Amino acid sequence: LLYKPVDRVTRSTLVLHDLLKHTPVSHPDHPLLQDALRISQNFLSSINEEITPRRQSMTVKKGEVSL
């Protein structure tokens, strides 16, 4: 349930990427779509960087005992 908002941003990022791919460079919305895609990707990167250390600290290697 906690991943739903992040999943929505991920899907929106993919939609923005596809939309940008099919929007001509001469279209007035092209720079705005580029900015929106960049912001969305930066947001996802910051979440990923924040979660990775926590995930690694919670992972127990095979044969190790977690206390």
UniProtKB/TrEMBL annotation:
Residue ranges of domain DH in the record:
1-50
What InterPro entries does this protein map onto? Answer: Abr/Bcr (IPR037769), DBL_dom_sf (IPR035899), DH_dom (IPR000219)
Please provide, in alphabetical order, the Gene Ontology terms of the cellular component aspect for this entry. membrane
Q: Name one GO molecular function term.
A: GTPase activator activity
Q: What is this protein called?
A: BCR protein
Q: Supply the source organism's classification.
A: Eukaryota, Metazoa, Chordata, Craniata, Vertebrata
Q: Which gene encodes it?
A: Bcr
